[in-house]
């Protein structure tokens, strides 16, 4: 797949929005992650790659709060969030999509996306009565306006009233992205957003991700197996293998690293003269 037309032009802010510091994760005797550290700058599109079972989704789960790491800490926007529950992390600006779709299949597309804005509701125990008398209708209209903006952006107007479970796989992936975007996150975690898609659907999704980063200003961490996409749209890439960090850097440099080529691409001797170039590998 070639998506060279969507290479990001924006330069990420070097100030870290997210810092992952010496994270280890154990399940009994199994080590899913071992002493992994990295940072993601504001406005950056950062990809995590590695073989199946390398710990990529486990890392996203530590960032989003689904898992609590055994050691280390997660710092988001200057605050230690290591022990915060997932709903609290969503409330402070961490959005998430999943490798396996997590939509409410019996609900409409519109209602699924509206779920992504529940934490933005302003009413509470003390102001509830005044809220319902004075602000409920206005707030509802504002939420609807934002949701419609997301629907237009992702070109899903034609299915906005459809039941989510009746849609094609590619459209359901787009609806899940819409729900995460509706959260208005500072950081969005994308777990294999293009898995199972055909070439046209992948190209569309790549464009949406780049536009979220460049036009909407969202910082993005993406897990993706399609090396063409990773090479074309990422600012930086980190490689995990058996729960350990192998290397981190710009995409071309990472894919040229001999340890990466052996661990991730299966090359026994990466120094052979007829070794394929990174461009050829991403074709």
Q: By CATH's scheme, which homologous superfamily of the largest domain applies?
A: P-loop containing nucleotide triphosphate hydrolases
What fold name goes in the CATH topology slot of the largest domain?
Rossmann fold
Number of helices: 11
From N to C, what is the helix and strand string?
Answer: EEEHEEHEHHHHEHEHEEHHH
Keywords: ATP-binding, Nucleotide-binding, Transport
Pfam families: ABC_tran, BCA_ABC_TP_C
Protein name: Branched-chain amino acid transport system ATP-binding protein
GO molecular function: ATP binding
Brief account:
It is built from eleven helices and ten strands. The protein is an alpha/beta fold and about 280 residues long.
Structure, described:
The chain has 283 residues and is α/β, with parallel strands linked by helices. The protein has two domains: 4-93 and 185-282, P-loop containing nucleotide triphosphate hydrolases (Rossmann fold, 3-Layer(aba) Sandwich); 112-182, no CATH class. Helix content is 36%, strand content 22%. It contains eleven helices and ten strands. It has a six-stranded mixed sheet with strand order 6-7-8-3-9-10, with helices on both faces. It has a four-stranded antiparallel sheet with strand order 2-1-4-5, with helices on one face. α7 (199-214) links the parallel β7 and β8. The termini are close together.
């Amino acid at each position: 797949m070639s998506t060279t037309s969507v290479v990001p032009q924006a330069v990420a802010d070097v100030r870290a929005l997210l810092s992952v510091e010496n994270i280890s994760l154990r399940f009994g005797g199994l080590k899913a992650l071992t002493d992994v550290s990295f940072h993601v700058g504001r406005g950056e599109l950062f990809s995590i790659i590695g073989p199946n079972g390398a710990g990529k989704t486990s890392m996203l789960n530590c960032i989003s709060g689904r898992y609590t790491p055994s050691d280390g800490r997660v710092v988001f926007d200057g605050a230690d969030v290591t022990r915060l529950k997932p709903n609290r992390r969503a409330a402070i600006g961490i959005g998430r999509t999943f490798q396996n779709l997590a939509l409410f299949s019996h609900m409409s597309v519109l209602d699924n996306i509206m779920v992504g804005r529940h934490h933005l509701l302003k009413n509470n125990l003390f102001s509830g009565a005044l809220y319902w008398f004075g602000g409920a209708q206005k707030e509802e209209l504002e939420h609807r306006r934002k949701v419609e903006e997301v629907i237009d952006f992702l070109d899903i107007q034609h299915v906005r009233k459809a039941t989510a479970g009746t849609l094609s796989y590619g459209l359901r992936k787009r609806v899940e992205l819409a729900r995460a975007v509706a959260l208005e996150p500072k950081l969005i975690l994308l777990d294999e957003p293009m898995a199972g898609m055909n070439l046209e659907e992948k190209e569309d999704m790549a464009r949406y991700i780049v536009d979220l980063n460049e036009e909407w200003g969202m910082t993005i961490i993406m897990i993706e197996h399609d090396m063409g996409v990773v090479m074309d749209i990422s600012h930086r890439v980190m490689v995990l293998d058996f729960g350990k960090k192998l290397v981190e850097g710009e995409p071309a440099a990472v894919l040229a690293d001999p340890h990466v080529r052996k661990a991730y691409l299966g090359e026994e001797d990466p120094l052979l003269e007829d070794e394929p170039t990174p461009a050829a590998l991403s074709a």
